[in-house]
Amino acid sequence: MQRFLVRRFFLMIITLLAVSMIIFVMARVGGDPRSLLLDDHATKEQWELLGEELGLNKPLYHQYAIFMSGVLRGDFGESISQRRPVLEVVAEKVPATLQLGGAAFLLALVVGIPLGVMSAVLRGSALDQIGRAVALIGQAAPSFWLGIIFIFFFAVYLGWVPPSGRQDWNSFILPTVTLAWGGFLAGSLRLMRSAMLDTLDSEYIKLARAKGLPSRAIVWKHAFRNALIPPLTLAGVSMPAILTGSITTELVFAWPGMGQLAVQALWSSDYPLIQGLTIMFTLGYVFIALIVDVLYAYIDPRIRYL
Amino acid sequence: MANATVLSSTQPVIVRALRAIARWRRPVLIIPVIILTSVVVAGITANWISPHDPNVGDPNHRLQPGFWGYEPTPPVIVTKEVVAVISPSDIELQKTQITEYNARQIDPNAVIGDKMDVVVREGIDTFYILGTDHLGRDLLTRIIHGARVSLVMAALTLLVGGTMGTVLGLTAGWYGGWIDEAVMRMVDIILALPLILVALVLVVALGPSFQLIIVIMAIAIWPLFTRVVRGEVLRVKTADYVALAKVAGAGTIRIMFVHILPGIANSMIVVATLLVGVVILLEAALSFLGAGVPPPTPAWGSMLSEGRDRIAVAWWISTLPGLAIFLTVLSLNLFGDWLRDALDPRLRQLE
Question: Do the chains contact at A152 and B312, CB–CB below 8 Å?
Answer without folding.
Answer: yes
